[in-house]
Amino acid sequence: MALGLVALCFDANDPLRLARFWAEALRWEVGDESDERIRVLPTDGTRFRLEFVPVPESKVGRNRLHLDLTTTSLEDQERSADRLVELGGRPIDVGQAPDDEHIVLADPEGNELCLIEPTNRFLGDCGRLGAISCDGTMEVGYFWSAALGWPLVWDQDEETAIQSPQGGTKISWGGPPVNEKTGKNRWHLDLAPAAGDDQQAEVERLVSLGARRIDIGQGDVSWVVLADPGGNEFCVLTPR
After folding, report:
1. Whole-angstrom Cα distance, residue 180 to residue 203?
2. Which phi and psi angles does 172 have, rounded to 5°?
3. pLDDT at 177 over 70
4. Following DSSP, what letter does each residue of the chain receive, concatenated?
5. Facing residues of 77 across strands?
6. Regarding beta strands 170-174 and 129-135, do their DSSP bridges make them parallel or antiparallel, or are they unpaired?
7. pTM of this structure
């Protein structure tokens, strides 16, 4: 059995503003703007969406995750950076070297992202959303490979990456977390079994792989909240 990746969800103080920023960044589309939870829907065949969920708390510290966006030329990279700054993004320093070719920005609420140089071969077979890049050990990558049924496409130098058999966005892990986890992540993945599969059986399978059940105050809901071996929260939805 394996689960499908349904959404990458972000906590947001202003979900609509953040959704519009990321729709522009990814060249995707904003869904129904009347909803409290705003979705950004892919236009390029990507099999999951982004969701922005309202929260009162502001971002504190650096995320354990950032998104790597591919570019097709140096001009595309520069134009993308200029446009995202116009929309409320800003250049930031996360320790990148002066000669690094990627451009590091933060979105309007401080979430980090990279505009990757067009010569990057590792993301050359991906779409605009080249990678979900995570801080964490290789063991966390092995967990997610088994959870999603995505094979390893990189497994060396203390780094791990997986990709769907159908191609598209990669998910990577490298090194330990940048800081000790003291609260809930500002992002999480939503997974779902296929129609006809058993949600609880999938939850038990994930627990056997190293996940654990957690309570983040979700109450009586249809989904199950778990943490991966690195302590990162995720949700298992009902089959679909």
Report:
1. 26
2. -130, 155
3. no
4. ---EEEEEEEEESSHHHHHHHHHHHHT-EE--TTSSSEEEE-SSS-S-EEEEEE-SSPP-S--SEEEEE--SSHHHHHHHHHHHHHTT-EE--SS--TT--SEEEE-TT--EEEE--TT-STTTTS-SEEEEEEES-HHHHHHHHHHHTPPEEEEETTEEEEE-TT---EEEEESS-SS---S--SEEEEEEPPTTS-HHHHHHHHHHHT-EE--SS--S-SSEEEE-TTS-EEEE----
5. none
6. parallel
7. 0.95
Indicate if the alpha-carbon torsion angle 166, 45, 108, 4 is positive or negative: negative
Q: Which residues pair with 168 in a beta bridge?
A: none
Domains, the chain:
4-174 (3.10.180.10)
Percent of the chain with pLDDT over 90: 89
pLDDT in tens, 35-73: 889 999 999 999 999 999 999 999 998 999 999 999 999
Alpha-carbon span 150 to 144, nearest angstrom? 8
Instruction: Give the number of residues written for the chain.
Output: 240
Q: How far apart are CA 115 and CA 67, in angstroms?
A: 9
The string of pLDDT tens digits covering residues 191-210 is 999 999 999 999 999 999 99
